[in-house]
Amino acid sequence: SGVPCVSDEVATIWLNNPAVREAIHAQPVSVAGPWEICTTNSNFNYNHDAGSMIPYHVNLTNEGYRALIFSGDHDMCVPFTGSEAWTRSLGYAITDPWRSWLSVGQVAGYLQGYAHNLTFITVKGAGHTVAEYKPQQALAFFSRWLEGTS
Amino acid sequence: IHEDTIVSSLPGFNGTFPSNQYAGYVTIDGDKNLFYYFVESERNPSEDPVVLWLNGGPGCSSFDGFVYEHGPFNFEPGQPNGSLPILHLNPYSWSTVSNIIYLDSPVGVGLSYSQNESNYNIGDYQTAEDTHSFLLQWFEEYSEFFSNPFYLSGESYAGVYVPTLASQVVAGIQAGVVPNLNFKGYMVGNGVTDPMYDGNALVPFVHGMGLISDDIYQNVVAACNGSYYNNNDPNCDASYQTVMNCFNGLNIYDILEPCYHGSDSVTSLPVSFKQLGATERPLPVRKRMFGRAWPYWAPAVEDGPVTLWPQLDSQ
User: Fold this and answer.
1) DSSP string of B54-71, one letter each residue
2) For a pLDDT cut of 90, what percent of chain B falls above it?
3) In what order do the strands lie in the sheet with A118-123?
4) Of the partner residues A46, A65, A86, the one whose CB lies closest to the CB of residue B184
5) B142-158 pLDDT, tens per residue?
6) Looking at the complex, does the CB of residue B114 fall below 8 Å from at least one CB of chain A?
7) Which of A5, A68, A126 has its CB closest to that of B187?
8) How far is A91 from chain B (nearest CA, A)?
9) Residue A2: per-residue pLDDT
10) Could you give the ipTM of this predicted complex?
11) Of B9, B160, B201, which has the smallest distance from its Cβ to A53's Cβ?
Protein backbone atom coordinates (compact mmCIF):
# COMPACT_ATOMS: atom_id res chain seq x y z
CA SER A 1 0.00 0.00 0.00
CA GLY A 2 2.95 2.30 0.36
CA VAL A 3 2.35 2.99 4.05
CA PRO A 4 5.86 2.92 5.47
CA CYS A 5 6.88 0.35 8.09
CA VAL A 6 3.34 -1.00 8.43
CA SER A 7 2.29 -4.58 7.81
CA ASP A 8 -1.20 -4.81 6.39
CA GLU A 9 -0.89 -8.39 5.20
CA VAL A 10 -3.40 -10.04 7.50
CA ALA A 11 -6.15 -7.54 6.72
CA THR A 12 -5.34 -7.57 3.02
CA ILE A 13 -5.56 -11.34 2.81
CA TRP A 14 -8.76 -11.50 4.83
CA LEU A 15 -10.67 -8.67 3.18
CA ASN A 16 -9.83 -9.77 -0.34
CA ASN A 17 -10.98 -13.32 0.24
CA PRO A 18 -14.22 -14.03 -1.67
CA ALA A 19 -15.76 -16.00 1.22
CA VAL A 20 -15.07 -13.16 3.64
CA ARG A 21 -16.56 -10.62 1.28
CA GLU A 22 -19.66 -12.72 0.92
CA ALA A 23 -19.95 -13.18 4.69
CA ILE A 24 -19.81 -9.44 5.32
CA HIS A 25 -22.06 -8.56 2.36
CA ALA A 26 -19.30 -6.68 0.57
CA GLN A 27 -19.16 -6.52 -3.18
CA PRO A 28 -16.53 -8.71 -4.83
CA VAL A 29 -13.22 -7.34 -6.03
CA SER A 30 -14.58 -7.15 -9.56
CA VAL A 31 -17.11 -4.54 -8.42
CA ALA A 32 -15.67 -2.71 -5.42
CA GLY A 33 -12.00 -3.22 -6.24
CA PRO A 34 -9.36 -4.73 -4.01
CA TRP A 35 -9.28 -3.77 -0.36
CA GLU A 36 -6.23 -1.71 0.51
CA ILE A 37 -5.41 -0.32 3.91
CA CYS A 38 -4.97 3.06 2.21
CA THR A 39 -6.21 3.44 -1.30
CA THR A 40 -3.74 3.68 -4.14
CA ASN A 41 -6.45 4.34 -6.73
CA SER A 42 -5.04 7.10 -8.92
CA ASN A 43 -8.53 8.56 -9.29
CA PHE A 44 -8.74 9.18 -5.56
CA ASN A 45 -7.97 12.86 -5.30
CA TYR A 46 -8.48 14.44 -1.91
CA ASN A 47 -8.67 18.18 -1.38
CA HIS A 48 -7.84 19.57 2.04
CA ASP A 49 -10.35 22.36 1.94
CA ALA A 50 -11.46 22.83 5.52
CA GLY A 51 -8.34 24.43 7.02
CA SER A 52 -7.64 24.46 10.74
CA MET A 53 -9.92 22.43 12.98
CA ILE A 54 -9.46 24.72 15.97
CA PRO A 55 -12.54 26.87 15.21
CA TYR A 56 -14.58 23.68 14.94
CA HIS A 57 -13.39 22.50 18.34
CA VAL A 58 -14.15 25.90 19.86
CA ASN A 59 -17.67 25.91 18.47
CA LEU A 60 -18.46 22.33 19.40
CA THR A 61 -17.15 22.53 22.95
CA ASN A 62 -18.90 25.86 23.50
CA GLU A 63 -22.10 24.20 22.32
CA GLY A 64 -21.69 21.77 25.20
CA TYR A 65 -20.42 18.72 23.37
CA ARG A 66 -17.82 16.65 25.15
CA ALA A 67 -14.40 16.20 23.56
CA LEU A 68 -11.58 13.79 24.30
CA ILE A 69 -8.27 14.41 22.54
CA PHE A 70 -5.94 11.47 23.06
CA SER A 71 -2.37 10.93 21.91
CA GLY A 72 -0.09 7.94 21.84
CA ASP A 73 3.05 9.58 23.14
CA HIS A 74 5.48 7.69 20.88
CA ASP A 75 3.85 8.71 17.61
CA MET A 76 6.05 10.86 15.40
CA CYS A 77 3.43 11.14 12.65
CA VAL A 78 1.11 13.43 14.60
CA PRO A 79 3.07 13.95 17.82
CA PHE A 80 1.40 14.60 21.14
CA THR A 81 3.31 17.88 21.39
CA GLY A 82 1.01 19.41 18.77
CA SER A 83 -2.21 18.12 20.34
CA GLU A 84 -1.10 19.26 23.78
CA ALA A 85 -0.25 22.70 22.39
CA TRP A 86 -3.46 23.36 20.51
CA THR A 87 -5.71 22.16 23.31
CA ARG A 88 -3.84 24.45 25.68
CA SER A 89 -4.06 27.31 23.18
CA LEU A 90 -7.84 27.42 23.46
CA GLY A 91 -7.35 29.16 26.80
CA TYR A 92 -10.01 27.18 28.61
CA ALA A 93 -9.79 27.06 32.37
CA ILE A 94 -7.98 24.00 33.69
CA THR A 95 -10.38 21.91 35.72
CA ASP A 96 -8.15 18.88 36.24
CA PRO A 97 -4.48 19.85 36.37
CA TRP A 98 -1.86 17.70 34.67
CA ARG A 99 -1.70 14.32 36.35
CA SER A 100 -1.21 10.68 35.61
CA TRP A 101 -4.08 8.37 34.85
CA LEU A 102 -4.04 4.68 35.73
CA SER A 103 -4.95 1.39 34.16
CA VAL A 104 -4.58 -1.93 35.96
CA GLY A 105 -2.79 -0.15 38.78
CA GLN A 106 -0.10 1.37 36.60
CA VAL A 107 0.47 4.81 35.14
CA ALA A 108 -1.03 4.56 31.66
CA GLY A 109 -0.51 8.17 30.62
CA TYR A 110 -1.18 11.74 31.61
CA LEU A 111 -4.13 14.04 31.32
CA GLN A 112 -5.26 17.60 31.65
CA GLY A 113 -8.90 18.46 31.96
CA TYR A 114 -10.32 21.75 30.72
CA ALA A 115 -13.57 23.62 31.03
CA HIS A 116 -16.20 22.95 28.39
CA ASN A 117 -15.71 19.22 28.88
CA LEU A 118 -12.48 19.12 26.91
CA THR A 119 -9.94 16.54 28.02
CA PHE A 120 -6.47 15.93 26.69
CA ILE A 121 -4.74 12.66 27.53
CA THR A 122 -1.58 10.89 26.54
CA VAL A 123 -1.27 7.13 26.34
CA LYS A 124 2.17 6.17 27.55
CA GLY A 125 4.13 3.99 25.15
CA ALA A 126 1.52 4.01 22.41
CA GLY A 127 2.03 4.97 18.80
CA HIS A 128 -0.17 6.54 16.16
CA THR A 129 -2.82 3.83 16.38
CA VAL A 130 -3.25 3.85 20.13
CA ALA A 131 -5.46 0.83 20.62
CA GLU A 132 -3.16 -1.30 18.47
CA TYR A 133 -0.26 -0.73 20.81
CA LYS A 134 -2.08 -0.40 24.14
CA PRO A 135 -5.40 -2.22 23.82
CA GLN A 136 -6.14 -2.63 27.51
CA GLN A 137 -5.33 0.97 28.34
CA ALA A 138 -7.28 2.16 25.31
CA LEU A 139 -10.39 0.32 26.40
CA ALA A 140 -9.93 1.78 29.88
CA PHE A 141 -9.96 5.41 28.78
CA PHE A 142 -12.60 4.77 26.13
CA SER A 143 -15.06 3.22 28.56
CA ARG A 144 -14.37 5.70 31.37
CA TRP A 145 -14.80 8.66 29.09
CA LEU A 146 -18.05 7.35 27.65
CA GLU A 147 -19.35 6.75 31.14
CA GLY A 148 -18.14 10.13 32.34
CA THR A 149 -16.14 8.63 35.17
CA SER A 150 -12.72 9.85 36.21
CA ILE B 1 -34.05 -7.28 12.63
CA HIS B 2 -31.75 -6.57 9.75
CA GLU B 3 -31.68 -9.92 8.06
CA ASP B 4 -30.06 -8.66 4.91
CA THR B 5 -27.07 -7.23 6.75
CA ILE B 6 -26.56 -9.62 9.64
CA VAL B 7 -23.18 -11.33 9.75
CA SER B 8 -23.82 -14.85 10.91
CA SER B 9 -20.32 -16.31 10.56
CA LEU B 10 -16.86 -15.26 9.51
CA PRO B 11 -14.15 -17.26 7.77
CA GLY B 12 -11.39 -17.89 10.26
CA PHE B 13 -13.59 -17.73 13.34
CA ASN B 14 -14.98 -20.80 15.02
CA GLY B 15 -17.28 -19.83 17.82
CA THR B 16 -20.22 -17.72 18.82
CA PHE B 17 -20.18 -13.98 18.38
CA PRO B 18 -20.47 -12.20 21.73
CA SER B 19 -22.94 -9.78 20.15
CA ASN B 20 -24.80 -9.22 16.92
CA GLN B 21 -22.78 -7.97 13.99
CA TYR B 22 -24.04 -6.39 10.79
CA ALA B 23 -22.39 -5.18 7.64
CA GLY B 24 -23.35 -3.77 4.30
CA TYR B 25 -23.66 -0.73 2.14
CA VAL B 26 -25.57 2.50 2.52
CA THR B 27 -25.96 4.24 -0.82
CA ILE B 28 -26.05 8.02 -0.88
CA ASP B 29 -26.50 10.41 -3.79
CA GLY B 30 -27.54 7.49 -5.92
CA ASP B 31 -24.10 6.09 -6.64
CA LYS B 32 -21.87 6.41 -3.58
CA ASN B 33 -21.81 3.07 -1.83
CA LEU B 34 -20.44 3.46 1.67
CA PHE B 35 -19.53 0.27 3.50
CA TYR B 36 -19.98 -0.15 7.23
CA TYR B 37 -19.42 -2.91 9.77
CA PHE B 38 -21.57 -2.55 12.86
CA VAL B 39 -20.83 -4.39 16.08
CA GLU B 40 -23.47 -4.31 18.77
CA SER B 41 -22.37 -3.85 22.34
CA GLU B 42 -21.59 -7.04 24.21
CA ARG B 43 -23.03 -5.45 27.34
CA ASN B 44 -26.33 -3.67 26.83
CA PRO B 45 -26.81 -2.68 23.21
CA SER B 46 -30.14 -1.01 23.76
CA GLU B 47 -28.66 1.53 26.18
CA ASP B 48 -24.92 1.64 25.51
CA PRO B 49 -23.61 4.45 23.33
CA VAL B 50 -23.33 4.22 19.58
CA VAL B 51 -19.85 5.23 18.41
CA LEU B 52 -18.83 5.90 14.83
CA TRP B 53 -15.16 5.08 14.19
CA LEU B 54 -13.18 6.59 11.32
CA ASN B 55 -9.60 5.94 10.33
CA GLY B 56 -7.75 8.69 8.53
CA GLY B 57 -5.32 8.96 5.68
CA PRO B 58 -7.14 10.53 3.94
CA GLY B 59 -7.88 7.40 2.04
CA CYS B 60 -7.34 4.76 4.72
CA SER B 61 -9.90 2.12 5.59
CA SER B 62 -11.58 1.92 8.98
CA PHE B 63 -10.97 -1.80 8.84
CA ASP B 64 -7.58 -0.79 10.15
CA GLY B 65 -9.41 -0.05 13.39
CA PHE B 66 -11.49 -3.21 13.10
CA VAL B 67 -8.61 -5.60 12.37
CA TYR B 68 -5.63 -4.07 14.15
CA GLU B 69 -6.97 -1.86 16.91
CA HIS B 70 -10.20 -2.29 18.84
CA GLY B 71 -12.45 -4.56 16.82
CA PRO B 72 -14.14 -7.66 18.21
CA PHE B 73 -11.43 -10.02 16.96
CA ASN B 74 -7.70 -10.45 17.15
CA PHE B 75 -6.34 -11.67 13.83
CA GLU B 76 -3.65 -14.32 13.99
CA PRO B 77 -1.73 -14.69 10.72
CA GLY B 78 -2.58 -17.87 8.87
CA GLN B 79 -0.12 -20.70 8.36
CA PRO B 80 1.31 -21.06 5.83
CA ASN B 81 1.80 -17.42 4.93
CA GLY B 82 -0.91 -16.21 2.64
CA SER B 83 -3.66 -18.40 4.03
CA LEU B 84 -6.63 -16.96 5.85
CA PRO B 85 -5.94 -15.60 9.34
CA ILE B 86 -7.40 -17.20 12.43
CA LEU B 87 -9.75 -15.00 14.45
CA HIS B 88 -9.92 -14.96 18.24
CA LEU B 89 -12.16 -12.82 20.41
CA ASN B 90 -10.53 -9.58 21.49
CA PRO B 91 -11.07 -9.08 25.23
CA TYR B 92 -10.31 -5.38 24.81
CA SER B 93 -12.73 -4.75 21.99
CA TRP B 94 -14.47 -1.41 22.22
CA SER B 95 -17.66 -3.34 21.54
CA THR B 96 -17.47 -4.62 25.10
CA VAL B 97 -18.87 -1.26 26.22
CA SER B 98 -20.37 0.36 23.12
CA ASN B 99 -22.13 -0.21 19.86
CA ILE B 100 -19.58 0.69 17.23
CA ILE B 101 -19.81 1.44 13.52
CA TYR B 102 -16.67 1.10 11.40
CA LEU B 103 -17.23 3.14 8.26
CA ASP B 104 -15.07 3.17 5.14
CA SER B 105 -15.11 6.84 4.22
CA PRO B 106 -15.01 8.72 1.94
CA VAL B 107 -16.23 6.82 -1.09
CA GLY B 108 -13.34 5.12 -2.85
CA VAL B 109 -11.76 3.97 0.40
CA GLY B 110 -11.61 0.40 1.66
CA LEU B 111 -14.75 -1.43 0.56
CA SER B 112 -16.67 1.74 -0.29
CA TYR B 113 -16.95 2.41 -3.98
CA SER B 114 -18.78 4.15 -6.77
CA GLN B 115 -19.29 3.15 -10.37
CA ASN B 116 -18.66 6.80 -11.13
CA GLU B 117 -15.04 7.36 -10.12
CA SER B 118 -15.38 11.11 -10.49
CA ASN B 119 -16.88 10.79 -7.02
CA TYR B 120 -13.36 9.98 -5.83
CA ASN B 121 -12.46 13.61 -6.35
CA ILE B 122 -13.47 14.75 -2.91
CA GLY B 123 -12.51 16.98 -0.03
CA ASP B 124 -13.10 17.69 3.64
CA TYR B 125 -16.48 19.38 3.25
CA GLN B 126 -17.92 16.81 0.85
CA THR B 127 -16.66 13.98 3.05
CA ALA B 128 -18.44 15.49 6.04
CA GLU B 129 -21.63 15.93 4.04
CA ASP B 130 -21.51 12.40 2.71
CA THR B 131 -20.82 10.89 6.10
CA HIS B 132 -23.67 12.89 7.57
CA SER B 133 -25.96 11.55 4.85
CA PHE B 134 -24.72 8.08 5.68
CA LEU B 135 -25.55 8.57 9.34
CA LEU B 136 -29.07 9.80 8.63
CA GLN B 137 -29.79 6.75 6.51
CA TRP B 138 -28.06 4.41 8.90
CA PHE B 139 -30.10 5.60 11.86
CA GLU B 140 -33.22 5.28 9.76
CA GLU B 141 -32.37 1.66 9.09
CA TYR B 142 -31.23 0.96 12.66
CA SER B 143 -33.82 3.19 14.28
CA GLU B 144 -33.75 1.19 17.51
CA PHE B 145 -30.41 2.90 18.24
CA PHE B 146 -31.59 6.41 17.48
CA SER B 147 -32.04 7.46 21.09
CA ASN B 148 -28.77 5.95 22.36
CA PRO B 149 -26.03 8.40 23.28
CA PHE B 150 -24.09 8.98 20.09
CA TYR B 151 -20.39 9.79 19.70
CA LEU B 152 -18.00 10.35 16.83
CA SER B 153 -14.43 9.09 16.98
CA GLY B 154 -11.37 8.52 14.88
CA GLU B 155 -7.66 9.02 14.58
CA SER B 156 -5.03 10.63 12.40
CA TYR B 157 -6.68 12.48 9.50
CA ALA B 158 -9.99 11.80 11.24
CA GLY B 159 -8.80 14.76 13.27
CA VAL B 160 -10.35 16.59 10.31
CA TYR B 161 -13.18 14.16 9.56
CA VAL B 162 -14.56 14.15 13.09
CA PRO B 163 -14.91 17.88 13.86
CA THR B 164 -16.24 18.68 10.38
CA LEU B 165 -18.74 15.84 10.62
CA ALA B 166 -19.68 16.83 14.16
CA SER B 167 -20.48 20.31 12.91
CA GLN B 168 -22.76 18.82 10.27
CA VAL B 169 -24.45 16.64 12.86
CA VAL B 170 -25.00 19.60 15.19
CA ALA B 171 -26.30 21.71 12.32
CA GLY B 172 -28.71 18.92 11.43
CA ILE B 173 -29.95 18.76 15.00
CA GLN B 174 -30.34 22.53 15.25
CA ALA B 175 -32.10 22.74 11.89
CA GLY B 176 -34.60 20.16 13.02
CA VAL B 177 -33.50 17.56 10.48
CA VAL B 178 -32.78 15.11 13.29
CA PRO B 179 -33.79 17.08 16.41
CA ASN B 180 -33.80 14.04 18.66
CA LEU B 181 -30.45 12.56 17.67
CA ASN B 182 -28.69 12.09 20.99
CA PHE B 183 -25.27 13.41 19.96
CA LYS B 184 -23.05 13.80 23.01
CA GLY B 185 -19.50 14.42 21.84
CA TYR B 186 -16.43 13.18 20.05
CA MET B 187 -12.95 11.82 20.49
CA VAL B 188 -9.88 12.16 18.32
CA GLY B 189 -6.62 10.25 18.61
CA ASN B 190 -3.31 11.62 17.29
CA GLY B 191 -5.41 13.81 15.08
CA VAL B 192 -4.41 16.23 12.39
CA THR B 193 -5.79 19.55 13.61
CA ASP B 194 -3.98 22.70 12.67
CA PRO B 195 -1.05 23.28 10.34
CA MET B 196 0.78 25.62 12.67
CA TYR B 197 0.45 23.62 15.88
CA ASP B 198 1.00 20.28 14.20
CA GLY B 199 3.78 21.68 12.06
CA ASN B 200 5.66 22.99 15.04
CA ALA B 201 5.24 19.76 17.00
CA LEU B 202 7.89 17.56 15.42
CA VAL B 203 11.11 19.26 16.50
CA PRO B 204 10.34 19.42 20.23
CA PHE B 205 9.03 15.85 20.06
CA VAL B 206 12.10 14.33 18.44
CA HIS B 207 14.40 16.29 20.70
CA GLY B 208 12.54 15.18 23.80
CA MET B 209 12.63 11.60 22.58
CA GLY B 210 16.36 11.68 22.00
CA LEU B 211 16.14 11.28 18.24
CA ILE B 212 18.18 14.41 17.52
CA SER B 213 21.16 15.78 19.39
CA ASP B 214 21.20 18.93 21.45
CA ASP B 215 23.38 20.55 18.79
CA ILE B 216 20.98 19.74 15.97
CA TYR B 217 18.10 20.94 18.11
CA GLN B 218 19.74 24.22 19.04
CA ASN B 219 20.71 24.84 15.43
CA VAL B 220 17.22 24.31 14.08
CA VAL B 221 15.63 26.37 16.82
CA ALA B 222 18.03 29.22 16.09
CA ALA B 223 17.73 28.97 12.30
CA CYS B 224 13.94 28.81 12.36
CA ASN B 225 13.45 31.04 15.36
CA GLY B 226 11.49 28.20 16.92
CA SER B 227 8.83 28.30 14.22
CA TYR B 228 8.94 25.60 11.57
CA TYR B 229 5.51 26.13 10.11
CA ASN B 230 5.57 28.03 6.84
CA ASN B 231 9.12 29.14 7.44
CA ASN B 232 10.76 29.80 4.09
CA ASP B 233 14.12 30.93 5.40
CA PRO B 234 16.84 28.96 3.55
CA ASN B 235 18.84 28.47 6.74
CA CYS B 236 15.75 27.09 8.39
CA ASP B 237 15.17 24.73 5.46
CA ALA B 238 18.74 23.45 5.69
CA SER B 239 18.58 22.94 9.44
CA TYR B 240 15.21 21.28 9.16
CA GLN B 241 16.60 18.91 6.57
CA THR B 242 19.34 17.99 9.02
CA VAL B 243 16.62 17.07 11.49
CA MET B 244 14.74 15.02 8.94
CA ASN B 245 17.87 13.14 7.92
CA CYS B 246 17.97 11.58 11.38
CA PHE B 247 14.90 9.43 10.76
CA ASN B 248 15.82 7.14 7.90
CA GLY B 249 14.47 3.69 8.66
CA LEU B 250 12.52 4.80 11.72
CA ASN B 251 8.94 3.67 12.21
CA ILE B 252 7.29 7.05 12.48
CA TYR B 253 4.02 5.56 13.71
CA ASP B 254 5.70 4.28 16.87
CA ILE B 255 9.31 5.19 17.29
CA LEU B 256 9.89 2.19 19.58
CA GLU B 257 8.58 -0.35 17.09
CA PRO B 258 10.60 -1.94 14.30
CA CYS B 259 10.03 -0.81 10.74
CA TYR B 260 8.30 -3.67 8.99
CA HIS B 261 9.58 -4.42 5.51
CA GLY B 262 7.39 -6.48 3.24
CA SER B 263 8.78 -9.76 2.10
CA ASP B 264 9.56 -8.48 -1.37
CA SER B 265 10.54 -4.90 -0.67
CA VAL B 266 13.99 -4.12 0.64
CA THR B 267 15.88 -7.20 -0.43
CA SER B 268 14.73 -6.98 -4.02
CA LEU B 269 15.42 -3.31 -4.52
CA PRO B 270 18.61 -2.06 -6.09
CA VAL B 271 20.95 -0.23 -3.78
CA SER B 272 20.55 2.98 -5.73
CA PHE B 273 16.82 2.92 -5.13
CA LYS B 274 17.19 2.20 -1.43
CA GLN B 275 19.40 5.25 -1.14
CA LEU B 276 17.01 7.56 -2.93
CA GLY B 277 15.69 9.03 0.26
CA ALA B 278 19.09 9.58 1.75
CA THR B 279 20.90 10.99 -1.22
CA GLU B 280 18.58 12.53 -3.73
CA ARG B 281 15.44 13.53 -1.99
CA PRO B 282 15.00 17.26 -1.78
CA LEU B 283 13.53 18.94 1.24
CA PRO B 284 10.54 16.95 2.41
CA VAL B 285 7.44 18.26 0.79
CA ARG B 286 6.31 21.23 2.76
CA LYS B 287 3.85 23.14 0.70
CA ARG B 288 0.95 20.85 0.03
CA MET B 289 -1.21 20.73 3.10
CA PHE B 290 -3.67 23.62 2.97
CA GLY B 291 -1.40 25.12 0.34
CA ARG B 292 0.96 26.07 3.12
CA ALA B 293 3.81 24.48 4.93
CA TRP B 294 3.16 21.27 6.78
CA PRO B 295 6.60 20.27 7.78
CA TYR B 296 6.24 16.90 9.39
CA TRP B 297 6.15 14.75 6.34
CA ALA B 298 7.58 11.33 6.67
CA PRO B 299 11.26 10.96 6.25
CA ALA B 300 12.54 8.72 3.55
CA VAL B 301 12.77 5.13 4.63
CA GLU B 302 15.03 2.45 3.33
CA ASP B 303 12.76 1.32 0.58
CA GLY B 304 12.13 4.63 -1.02
CA PRO B 305 10.91 8.13 -0.34
CA VAL B 306 7.42 8.22 1.02
CA THR B 307 5.20 10.65 2.81
CA LEU B 308 3.10 10.29 5.90
CA TRP B 309 -0.09 10.34 3.92
CA PRO B 310 0.75 8.53 0.76
CA GLN B 311 -2.42 9.63 -0.94
CA LEU B 312 -1.24 13.20 -0.82
CA ASP B 313 1.98 12.18 -2.43
CA SER B 314 0.08 10.76 -5.36
CA GLN B 315 -1.38 14.19 -6.00
Assistant:
1) E--TTTB-THHIIIIISS
2) 77
3) A94-103, A106-114, A118-123, A66-72, B183-189, B150-155, B50-54, B99-103, B32-39, B21-28
4) A65
5) 999 999 999 999 999 99
6) no
7) A68
8) 15
9) 63
10) 0.97
11) B160
Answer whether B193 sits within 8 Å of A48, measured CB to CB.
Answer: no
- B-chain CB neighbours of A136 within 8 Å are 92
Cα–Cα distance for residue pair B29/B119, rounded to 1 Å: 10
One-letter amino acid for residue A112 of the chain: Q
For B122-178, give the secondary structure using H, E and C: EEHHHHHHHHHHHHHHHHHHCHHHCCCCEEEEEECCHHHHHHHHHHHHHHHHHCCCC
Report how far residue A69's alpha carbon sits from residue B158's, in angstroms, rounded to the nearest whole number. Answer: 12
Q: What is the DSSP letter of B28?
A: E
> Once rounded to an integer, what is the mean pLDDT over residues B157-184?
96
Q: Determine which of A62, A81, A117, A123 to mutate to test the interface with B (most B C-beta atoms within 10 Å).
A: A81
| Crossing angle between the packed helical segments B214-224 and B234-244, to the nearest 10 degrees | 150
pLDDT digits (tens, 9 = 90+) for B229-267: 989 999 999 999 999 999 989 999 999 999 988 765 444
Q: What is the mean pLDDT of residues B78-106?
A: 96
